[in-house]
Amino acid sequence: MEQSKTGILLVNLGSPDSYEPADLKVYLREFLTDKRVIDLPTPLRKFLVEAIILPFRPKESAEAYELIWWDEGSPLIVITQQVIDKLQKRLGDEVPVSMGMRYGNPSIEAGFDELMEKNPDLKRVFMIPLYPQYAMATTETVIEKAKEVWQTKYPHLEMITKDAFYDDPLYVKALGESIRPYIEEHHIDHLLFSYHGVPERHIKKRDITGDHCLKCEDCCNVNSPAHTFCYRHQNVKTTQNAAEYLDLDSKDFNYSFAFQSKLGIDPWLSPATDAELVRLAEEEGVKKVAVCCPAFISDCIETLEEIGIRGKEDFVEAGGEDLILIPCVNDSDLWIDALETWCSDMLKPAEAVA
Q1: pLDDT tens digits, residue range 28-87?
Q2: What's the topology of domain 169-325?
Q3: Rg over CA atoms, the chain
Q4: 283: buried, middle or exposed (CB in 10 Å: 19+, 13-18, 0-12)?
Q5: What is residue 349's predicted lDDT score, i.e. its pLDDT?
Q6: Who contacts 41 (Cβ-Cβ below 8 Å, separation ≥6)?
Q7: What is the pLDDT of residues 94-132, one digit of tens each?
Q8: How many CB atoms sit inside 10 A of residue 352's CB?
Q9: DSSP-derived pairing of the beta strands 254-260 and 190-196
Q10: 147 to each of 106, 127, 158, 347, how far by Cα in Å?
Q11: Do the bridges between strand 322-325 and strand 288-292 make them parallel or antiparallel, or are there none, so unpaired?
């Protein structure tokens, strides 16, 4: 069969090459010096990373990574490769599929290179940032890095990027069905949706109206053009979508959302997941909590260690009995269904034009 002129590039956050402190230092330097992650003036950002964070954080992070590292390698990389393999099988060998990571290996550039090696006659790339919700420190930095590679190395290609898909019915179904067995098979008291946190200033910076996000009452539920790039709104909507899909309001347990992974002293989105887990146990008497992490497509350090290990310890120490970590959509069939549909829809007009 004739080779497709469109290649598929899946991009995730990334991972260190190993859990050794030296590899963590390389990875964290690339990650934390990104101006869309720590959005401070360059001299201040470099001082913060080099003088305050890197002398101490790599060893601490290495210990955390070692706890969750698989025999095959980093869970994030392994799972993403499993997704690639399944999607490739669905689309057929004539459609080149590769992965890239914003930080670490394989890089976004390596992903482009692999697509071109598979088909030197490629005309365009359909890139899917593996983040359901748009954020400056995730989707935006992936797009900008991909543009840099594309424009300097492969300017003849057309690049098309998948928009945030938190509202897409196929994603909502995949997310909902990933949660369902854990709330049906366990007698939980509470379901917590834990999203990766960002500083409040990130939300305000991406408010295209300049006067909506975090500035008006119940801003996430008041219609506004700002929602196109508002991470918090898209988190709220993800929770609402999952709740509606699973009919959570009819269940005999409560649900809520919170934000994890705070870094630094600036105001971040709240409530904080770690504090919320303690509050649920101490103030509401919750004994069994289930936690899902819909800002992540693949299980990683933030889900497996931060929630599955540290979060569970905090919850139990505060009086809870058990924390059940709900896996991400990972390489589930329904998630592969969603990817296959999006890619197939993109391939149809492309091949017609070619």
Answers
A1: 999 999 999 999 999 999 999 999 999 999 999 999 999 999 999 999 999 999 999 999
A2: Rossmann fold (3.40.50)
A3: 20
A4: exposed
A5: 60
A6: none
A7: 999 999 999 999 999 999 999 999 999 999 999 999 999
A8: 7
A9: parallel
A10: 17, 11, 10, 21
A11: parallel
Say how far apart CA 206 and CA 229 lie, in whole Å. Answer: 6
Cis, peptide link before residue 120, omega less than 30° from 0: no
The model carries a pTM of: 0.95
Q: How far apart are CA 262 and CA 134, in angstroms?
A: 18
The DSSP annotation for 135-186 comes to -IIIIIHHHHHHHHHHHHH-TTSEEEEPPP-TT-HHHHHHHHHHHHHHHHSS
Strand ranges for 181-308 from DSSP E: 190-196, 254-260, 288-292
**Architecture of the domain whose range is 6-165+332-353:** 3-Layer(aba) Sandwich (3.40)
Cα 300 from chain centre: 10
> Quick one: 211 exposed, middle or buried, by C-beta within 10 A (0-12, 13-18, 19+)?
exposed
Strand 6-15 versus strand 124-129 pairing type: parallel
Phi-psi map region of 261: left, alpha, beta (phi>0 left; psi -120 to 50 alpha): left
Question: Which residue(s) pair with 159 in the sheet?
Answer: 125
Closest CA to 96 of 215, 2, 200, 19: 2
Domain ranges of the chain: 6-165+332-353, 169-325
Task: Name the residue type at position 118.
Answer: K
76 with 297: CB under 8 angstroms? no
Asked if the domains 6-165+332-353 and 169-325 are classified in one and the same CATH topology, the answer is yes
Q: With a cut of 50, which residues of the chain have pLDDT below it?
A: 350-354
How high is the pLDDT of residue 2? 78
